[in-house]
């Protein structure tokens, strides 16, 4: 419990100590202003690109820390696809047995990569919450480590190293837009900014079709939802984790919900103006600006492009004029 | 003339000294293995991504050095589009007057960005060689600095910093595939590898439709060509520069020519397997593997994704199944 004015489970010293344990291939990602995108959005937009690594998402930052703490054991996680790829990559390089549990409705491109990376993949006939239950059951029955995204501090601390890099870039920004799923990225990056750049507004962005954690943040109590209706598979949860909500209440300045058509429009703008193929979750920040341009007008906005594991056929359909 | 066993105009000490003068936004670019791409190519493929910066190509590394040496003056260059953007960006931030001369047949997306970045753009009714002549005439009549790509050492030294990063990555590779246009990237990156990683094979790749420098390298004498027939606008020259050829004769282990259909197939593979939008020049390395898979089978291949300034309509047509 380090910082006296940002009381969460996270600690800046631990985050700084974690960074050297992460394979450099996940670190030092590009952060630069994208003028064409900014012109279209009416603000200055800095893009932090987390997709140019072997698993095409930021999740490797966290899984590197997880496997560092495991000595020759096995590990299981539930995943919408990105955490599973990252754990398969990190675990595979260290000879660990990795099991990933996913919904059979998960993005095929993600499932295919999890298998290709050598993990055991188990599919459940339900959504991500059922996959979480099944992963927990496997961990209990097999006596192996259960990795729980956003609950386990390694996942938050790994994501938090993005925050260190944003601050160290020297590129000034007024507000950061962070995709909100389980909450690891929002609490991790947010914690670092609150401590090292407290003037930066931390805004979480979640699809209106998967609003549980945002609603919980607004109501300051746990709210679960019954259904998920979003293409942003990477942030589609229904049951927030109490510990993560507690941290998010300390960290987030705001949490906004965006419509599906804004996510699609965000993907299209990132494609057309920045030449980037991104998965829907990575377009949430741009979607937030599109929905409330006055709020961001003329400001310096940083957004994290958190993943690019997307079905290309669907992407083509989404971005086509 | 530093290194006694790699006698060129380039010098490792100068390259190392140049690096801190370059805006960090162009440095430390991602380099990681892309397994899905490697599986399709039958070798291990490391991708060095030079597109996640404000000008979406590696050219900023060189233009930063150029403007560092200019004190409040003006500068003119000929450009197929990427050098012009980079010079406009670097010069614009320092309040320099930047003039870019380009062919009126240049990629519209590139010309548009040069204008948007505040440079004066002059179009000539001919190809890149005519633009070079016109830029030289402007420099002479206006008494301003003429930046000549690949001839001026800053452009080679800037590109050479890519080589430093490749070596420093600690990721081993056996061969590097470098797009060959004017020659700055090939001689710059190649020089660093020859000095610091002499076991790495340096292979230059040029379109068969714009073969002048490759033919010159093979014949060990200057060969000019009459016409250009390639979609790879970034490397489309007809008149090699004698000093650059002399360096390339020392540096390159091989120079290969690839067909247009291989360039397109390379763009498609980078799109489908790596999720990358690239311009044709950036696909030359992949094209070289596609044309001679036996040569690269099982080897560790590094390729530099040098730019992503591409017309999206054309890109869609090229990569569509």
Automatic annotation (TrEMBL), chains A, B:
Keyword Lyase: yes
Domain of life of the organism encoding this protein: Bacteria
Biological-process GO terms, alphabetical: isoleucine biosynthetic process; L-serine catabolic process; L-threonine catabolic process
GO molecular function, one term: L-serine ammonia-lyase activity
Record key words, sorted: Lyase, Pyridoxal phosphate
Protein name: Pyridoxal-phosphate dependent enzyme
Domain Tryptophan synthase beta chain-like PALP: 27-307
Cofactor: pyridoxal 5'-phosphate
Record organism: Kribbella sandramycini
Pfam families reported in the protein's UniProt record: PALP
Cited SUPFAM superfamilies: Tryptophan synthase beta subunit-like PLP-dependent enzymes
């Amino acid at each position: 419990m380090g910082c006296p004015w940002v009381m969460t489970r996270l600690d800046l010293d631990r985050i700084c100590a974690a960074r050297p344990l992460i394979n450099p291939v996940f670190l030092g990602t590009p952060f630069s202003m994208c003028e064409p995108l900014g012109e279209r959005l009416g603000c200055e937009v800095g893009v932090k690109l987390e997709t140019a690594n072997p698993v095409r998402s930021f999740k490797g930052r966290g899984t590197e820390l997880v496997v560092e703490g495991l000595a020759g054991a096995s590990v299981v996680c539930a995943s919408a696809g990105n955490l599973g790829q990252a754990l398969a990559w990190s675990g595979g390089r260290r000879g660990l047995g990795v099991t990933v549990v996913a919904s059979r409705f998960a993005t095929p491109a993600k499932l295919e990569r999890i298998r290709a990376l050598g993990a055991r993949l188990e599919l459940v006939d339900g959504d991500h919450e059922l996959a979480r239950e099944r992963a927990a059951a496997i961990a209990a029955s097999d006596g192996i480590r259960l990795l729980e995204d956003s609950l386990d501090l390694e996942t938050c601390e790994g994501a938090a190293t993005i925050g260190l890099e944003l601050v160290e870039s020297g590129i000034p920004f007024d507000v950061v837009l962070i995709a909100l799923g389980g909450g690891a990225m929002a609490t991790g990056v947010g914690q670092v900014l609150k401590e090292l750049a407290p003037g930066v507004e931390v805004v979480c962005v979640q699809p209106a079709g998967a609003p549980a954690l945002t609603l919980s943040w607004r109501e300051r109590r746990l709210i679960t939802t019954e259904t998920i209706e979003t293409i942003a598979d990477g942030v589609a949860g229904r049951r927030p984790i109490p510990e993560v909500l507690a941290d998010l209440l300390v960290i987030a300045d705001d949490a906004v919900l965006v419509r599906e058509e804004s996510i699609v429009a965000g993907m299209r703008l990132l494609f057309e103006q920045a030449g980037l193929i991104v998965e829907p979750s990575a377009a949430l920040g741009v979607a937030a600006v599109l929905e409330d341009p006055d709020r961001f007008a003329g400001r310096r906005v940083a957004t994290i492009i958190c993943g690019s594991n997307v079905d290309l056929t669907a992407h083509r359909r989404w971005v086509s004029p």
